[in-house]
């Protein structure tokens, strides 16, 4: 195989592996939720995100429990944590909850997209 074609093939394989490795970053696995004592409003239909019910996460540490609770309350299908200076995609996804955190990992904003 000529060298330029091998380089392109290798580059494509490495790029595909990198993308596949990042595909689950920032998502929360679905897990049975235990009773927290507080009643949450029902989630919006069909996985559409509504950030208002998840605003209780602001000021809390971004632990997996807090992220999953906020995701469930918002009705979103997935959640991601946005850290200061982190490169992120800017496409809008109506089924995704964004939890912006400060340098110490404390949630400072909850939005959809």
Index terms:
alpha+beta; Trypsin Inhibitor V, Chain A; 3-stranded mixed beta sheet; 27% helix
Break the fold down into its secondary structure elements and pairings:
Elements: H1 3-22, H2 64-74, E1 78-82, E2 96-101, E3 107-112
Parallel strand pairs: 1-2
Antiparallel strand pairs: 2-3
Structural commentary:
It is a single chain. The protein starts with a helix and ends with a strand. It has a domain of about 70 residues: 2-Layer Sandwich (Trypsin Inhibitor V, Chain A), CATH 3.30.10. By secondary structure, it is an alpha+beta fold. Strands 1-2-3 form a three-stranded mixed beta sheet, with helices on one face. It is built from two helices and three strands; from the N terminus they run ααβββ. The longest helix is centred in the first third of the chain and has 20 residues. About 10% of the residues have low confidence.
Task: Write down the secondary-structure element order.
Answer: HHEEE
**How many beta strands in the DSSP annotation?**
3
Largest sheet data: 3 strands, mixed
Helix content: 25-40%
Q: Give the overall silhouette.
A: globular
Poorly predicted tracts of residues: 27-35
Q: CATH architecture of the domain at 47-112, please?
A: 2-Layer Sandwich
CATH superfamily of the domain at 47-112: Trypsin Inhibitor V, subunit A
| Strand-pairing-aware structural class | alpha+beta
């Amino acid at each position: 195989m000529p060298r330029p074609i091998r380089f392109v093939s290798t580059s494509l394989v490495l790029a595909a592996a990198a993308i596949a490795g990042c595909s689950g970053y920032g998502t929360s696995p679905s897990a049975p939720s235990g009773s927290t004592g507080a009643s949450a409003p029902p989630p919006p239909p069909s996985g559409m995100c509504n950030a208002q019910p998840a605003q209780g996460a602001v000021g809390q540490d971004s632990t997996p429990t807090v992220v999953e609770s906020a995701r469930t309350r918002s009705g979103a299908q997935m959640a991601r944590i946005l850290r200061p200076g982190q490169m992120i995609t800017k496409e809008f996804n109506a089924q995704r909850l964004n939890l912006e955190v400060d340098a110490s990992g404390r949630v400072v904003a909850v939005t959809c997209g």
